[in-house]
Amino acid sequence: MRKSPPKRSNLFLLELILAIFFFALASAVCIRLFVQARTLTLESHKQNQALTCAKNLSALFESREGSLADIAENFPQSHLEDSRLEIYYNEDWELCPENENAYLLTLTLSDSSYEGHLPEGEIQVLEDRELLCTLAVSCYIPIEVETGE
Please, which domain of life does this record's source organism belong to (predicted)? Predict the structure, then answer.
């Protein structure tokens, strides 16, 4: 008895299965890369927004000469305690009340040096207790010199 050689259709089917396998493997890798890229983009956007808010508060700290009460006037839904100001933002980085916040921006004053002419503080931006960015701030308040006139 003679064995019949394998049919061409069997080889074609095997090639087709291997091609589909490699295509599925490559597509799984590509999908994973796209998901990672999207995650990195969202995280980068969040950190950029946090840094922008911190820099804006830093500029306000300097223009108000380190007075938390004056700064709090610009944020009506903020919370001011002794030497700490808390400002609340929602998911879209818009000001919101405390119970709707997704992000918390805090400005904490530390001891002032040079006889009160250099207030210093730290700005932190948090998302669910996860620190997004920290910015040290200080502002020099010039000493007024009396003229002898």
Answer: Bacteria
Residue 26: inside a domain, yes or no?
Answer: no
For residue range 32-82, list pLDDT tens digits in order: 999 999 999 999 999 999 999 999 999 999 999 888 999 999 998 999 998
Domain count, the chain: 1
Cα–Cα distance for residue pair 128/75, rounded to 1 Å: 21
Q: Looking up tokens 């503080």, which residue turns up?
A: 121
In a domain, 91, yes or no: yes
- Residue 43 forms part of a structural domain: yes
Asked whether residue 111 carries a pLDDT value surpassing 90, the answer given is no
Q: What is the pLDDT of residue 96?
A: 93
> Which of 145, 149, 140, 148 has the alpha carbon at shortest distance from 63?
140
